[in-house]
Amino acid sequence: MFGYMKLYILSLVFQNKKTIMESIKELRKQKGITQEKLAQLCGLTTVTINRAEKSGKMRLTTYETIINTLKSL
């Protein structure tokens, strides 16, 4: 059951790539941090953060990590 739910969530996420990309960028800017700082806090690379903001291409786990990090700031 969990696998199905994760696939459903993943499909919703990628249907709204533009919204997600804008949300990540907007949240990051509201928190006043750079892509480099966000990458450091998430344990990701700056390239990954940049790609997430520009193309929306990322794994669900990466998206979860970025959002959870931004929410915790």
How would you describe this structure to a colleague?
- It is a single chain.
- This protein is mainly α.
- The chain is 79% helix and 0% strand.
- It has helices spanning 2-15, 17-30, 35-42, 46-54, 60-72.
- Helix 3 crosses helix 4 and helix 3 crosses helix 5 (60-72).
Features:
73 residues, mainly alpha
Approximate shape: globular
Portion in helices: over 70%
Quick one: biggest sheet?
A: none
Strand content: under 5%
Instruction: List low-confidence stretches.
Output: none
List the secondary-structure elements in sequence, H or E. HHHHH
Compute the number of helices: 5
The chain-level structural class is mainly alpha
Total count of strands: 0
**Average pLDDT, all residues:** 84
Question: What layout of secondary structure does this protein have?
Answer:
Blueprint: H1 2-15, H2 17-30, H3 35-42, H4 46-54, H5 60-72
Helix pairs in contact: 3-4, 3-5
